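Reviewers of the previous submission asked for a worked example of the structure-prediction workflow described in the proposal, so we include one complete record here. The input consisted solely of the amino acid sequence. No template or homolog information was supplied to the procedure at any stage.
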Amino acid sequence: MTKLVMLLPILKFEELERRTAQECESIAREGVQVQVVSLEEGPASIECEYDVVAAEPGILRAVKDAEKSGADACMISCFGDPGIDAAREVAGIPIIGAAETSMHLASMLGQRFSIITVLPQVKPRMWNRARIYGLACKIASIRDIQMPVLELDKNWKKIEQRLFEESKTAIERDGAQVITLGCTGMVGMAASLQRDLWEASYRVPVIDPVHAMIKYAEGLIDMKLSYSRITYPLPPAKKR
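From that input alone, the workflow returned the following structure tokens.
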């Protein structure tokens, strides 16, 4: 049995945990178990750099706990990829980020892609991560639906409509050829968005970051690959 941990780097949010677990179960192949966990200490959501810093200590503890529990990989379920570099240093298992995985996948499915996220204030971090990943030149646009993370469960139809409108604009105005959701709180919405776009004659793929992370994790485990210790060396032993 392969064990994956899907880490929600926020305080416990039962409805999001439920939806995430449901999607993980539906996409993981037979023989792969996905455990969804949240932080004991940290922010209620991640929507700015202050939230990222508040989440990182809990992320590092959770990653260490995942490895000790026998997990084969740990996925950080936030499109800001908080704490990912430090987590890769402290862990001996693959630590997978939502933005990094989704952006690279999107870049292989078309020449230019757009990210549809929650709020304007999360965009600077996404651009910064895209530059780190060498993919900023492939981004047609980063658009938002003007909806806080903690509001995503309150009006599903309204969110679906906003996702469609922003995706349509990204395709028509910005030249996007691929769409990726830019918040893992939107888990489960990619399939309906892709269907709606195709029905409107916009035949573009739509990426769900949670799905992308699971499939990438399965592939790394199958190939017995993990992250370079030259890039992510073990932290030196010293007082901290």
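The mean pLDDT is 98. We consider this example representative of the routine output the project will generate in years two and three.
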